[in-house]
Design goal:
By secondary structure, the chain is an all-alpha fold. The chain has one domain. About 65% of the residues lie in helices and about 0% in strands. The chain is globular, with a radius of gyration of 18 Å.
């Protein structure tokens, strides 16, 4: 799945979670943490595999439950210690939803593998001829229904985000306001 799809799925899961638990929309900071953590596995794996050559593929260390489960538990416990358990939960939901959504294609494609979920205990097929091109991956995705479903998830997520009052925009707006040159200076 591409970044848009990961953010969309994570936001849908998180807003449903906050509505069920609190009958309220997600908070702004928790939403920003969710957005960042929904990209976490790829931010770890893609650079280390594609550009560093340290990992065999772009779905290994950051996508492995052997890293993600202890990491998300640690982040949650640390956040809770400082009275911010919701931030830890947002991190966990974003990172874990990413890796599980990446495993979904195994349901209809026998060539797909979920070996990345337990890497390095399970072997993954390394790249045969180096890292793939992002453009080539994109072009290959255009005819894939799974890729096209990301836009449906994104539309649903944007509608829910709008209903929730666009959480996450306010802190970004404050930062941008501080960075803007003043008219009097």
């Amino acid at each position: 799945m591409w970044p848009l799809g990961h953010v969309a799925v994570a936001y849908i899961c998180y807003t449903v979670s906050t509505r069920v638990r609190f009958d309220a929309p997600p908070g702004s900071i928790a939403t920003l943490i969710l957005v960042a953590s929904s990209q976490f596995p790829d931010l770890v794996d893609k650079p280390l595999a594609w550009y560093g050559g340290v990992l065999p593929t772009g779905r290994t260390l950051g996508h492995s439950l052997l890293l993600l489960v202890p990491l998300t538990v640690a982040v949650y416990l640390l956040a809770r210690r400082y009275g911010r358990g919701e931030y830890g939960l947002a991190f966990a939901l974003g990172a874990l939803s990413h890796t599980f959504v990446d495993a979904v294609p195994i349901l209809w494609d026998s060539e797909e593998s979920v070996a990345h979920l337990l890497w390095p205990l399970t072997a993954v097929e390394p790249y045969e001829s180096g890292a793939p091109s992002v453009l080539a991956l994109f072009v290959d995705s255009l005819s894939d229904p799974y890729f096209l479903s990301e836009f449906v998830f994104a539309a649903v997520a944007v509608a829910l985000w709008r209903r929730d009052g666009y959480p996450g925009l306010e802190p970004i707006g404050r930062v941008l306001e501080r960075l803007r040159p003043s008219a009097t200076g």
